[in-house]
Structure formats: C-alpha cells, structure tokens
Amino acid sequence: MMNQEVPFVSIEEKLIQDFMRLPDDKKLEVIDFVEFLQSRTNNDLESLMDEIIIENHEALKELAE
C-alpha cells in the first residue's frame, strides 16, 4: 500500500474552487450571503461600541473635561 500525500488546499482555495463550479445565479447568492455576514459583523461591532459608550458615559464625560 503506497502512502500518497494529499495536497494541502487552503480554505480560500477550496472556496474559490467550489465557487467557480457554481452557476451564475448561485454565485450571486454566495455574494449576497457574504455581504450579509459582513454587515452582521459590522452591526455587531457598532452595537458593542454603542453599549460601551452607554455603560461608560460618565467616565467618558469626565475625560472630555
């Protein structure tokens, strides 16, 4: 039995390979989903920053003086 090495494929390479095999309408769905994930991440970050500002309002006010 021969020991064959499996070539390493990065996550990015795998995604690109799979993406290229999709029909155009499915590619558009993938793009929409990626944009959704990015916006959700941005919204999570904005919410976290808002929460930090609210929780530390008094301290931030004092620092501004």
What does this molecule look like?
There is one protein chain. The chain is mainly α. The protein has one domain. The chain is built from 3 helices and no strands. The mean pLDDT is 87.
Number of strands: 0
Mean pLDDT: 87
N- and C-termini, Cα separation: 76 Å
Q: Topology as H/E string?
A: HHH
Helices, by number, come to 3
Low-confidence stretches: none
CA radius of gyration is: 22 Å
What structural class is derived from the secondary structure elements? mainly alpha
Number of domains: 1
Quaternary state, please?
Answer: single chain
What is the percentage of strand-forming residues?
A: under 5%
Organism: Paenibacillus pini JCM 16418
Protein name: DUF2281 domain-containing protein
Which key terms come to mind for this protein?
about 60 residues; mainly alpha; 3 helices
Task: Describe this structure in a few short sentences.
This protein is mainly alpha-helical and about 60 residues long. The chain contains three helices and no strands.
Helices and strands in order:
Blueprint: H1 11-21, H2 24-55, H3 57-64
